[in-house]
């Protein structure tokens, strides 16, 4: 009996090609855990949208609040110093350039 089912299994009609896409695709089975996870995801998205619609500070409160901390001036100054240091080459003396030639001074 098992041999018969095994031999007849290859004559069974299956879905052509990729079984998870297309016109004759294999449809997923929808049960309670799948529905519960979708409902939970939608509720989480709705909660995120609520927080985006109703911010903690108003526009008047949020305008210029970082200027009082004074971080912007320090940040701009540090970025300016960093850019200047990237553009300028380090000071190199003539002795430093010719030190590579004195590696093997055997007569000294």
TrEMBL record:
InterPro entries assigned to the protein according to its UniProt record, in alphabetical order: Ribosomal_mL63
Domain of life according to the entry: Eukaryota
GO CC terms, sorted: mitochondrial ribosome
GO molecular function, one term: structural constituent of ribosome
BP GO annotations: mitochondrial translation
4Fe-4S is among the record's keywords: no
The entry's keywords: Ribonucleoprotein, Ribosomal protein
Name of the protein in question: Ribosomal protein 63, mitochondrial
